[in-house]
What does this fold into?
Amino acid sequence: MDNHKERTLILVHSRYPWVEYANKCGYHIDQVFRNVGLYKRVLRKFCMKNGIDFCMEKWLSDWHESIEQYDTIIVFASVLFKPLFYWIQKKYPQIRVICWYWDPFSDCKLRFKTDEGIERWSFDDDDCKIHQMNYSKTFFTPRPELTSNENQEYSYDVFFVGEDKGRYEKLTKLRDYLNSLGLKTSFTIVRDHKLFVENRGFKKRQYDQPIPEKEANKCIMQSKILVDLYQRGQTGLSQRAVEALLNKKKLITDNQNIKNYDFYRDNNIFVLNKNNMCEIKDFLKKPYEEVDEKILKEYSFDAWFNRFFIN
It folds into this structure.
């Protein structure tokens, strides 16, 4: 697979924390657009949303200057990237182009017809069945700030951080119940800008300020249990669930589909529904059950990447 590494370019919206790690492992990952000022960002957004690609090279990072050295390009889905796909197809028809949906299909307005020659892959098995896409498990890349040790000191029993995304009532209800059990919780619920506008500001809701990613990662390591309640329309495995798995953290989730995954252990994962919140008490008493290393490897970045090249 080393040849595929050398001949494949992965394009993302921004330099996520895992990008540095993956590049050090020999992958070629870059952000699609170069950094520009506010005026040019507004102009670029207008061009991308209206399919104007005649000045595409002006917006792209330096990767476009060496694009011909690649056989395959994997692009992380964003509605702003649609003209980019067509630009690559038109100028470099010999390159295999893959669109990777790492959010629920319903949340991403990027759409392609099945006969357009662009491969569509997703982490969500249900989305794949409904929209005739290829399926691949999501991935997790280790980072220094997300490394457990045997002498780990815990600041919290239960931790959550994330945007509202229609989960506010469920999250606050769960938080209040856990607090009533005497657990030390940290729930950071951040305003979802889209929902905030649609619902006239959610005047009665008390939102928290976002916390820096490094601080959030530190909190993850200092917590015994992570919470991962799903947004509407999502059934695929989230990054938070994989973080819990690879860092040997217990998980509370409302993803009923998680029971079908090979790593599921009822000692480690509590699947919340409308009627079983009171059973969390017993879940807390259960010891963590180790998951086989072979299973964990299936959620590595290497495994995710290699699946694109299995015939």
About this structure: The longest strand covers residues 156-163. The chain has a mean pLDDT of 87.
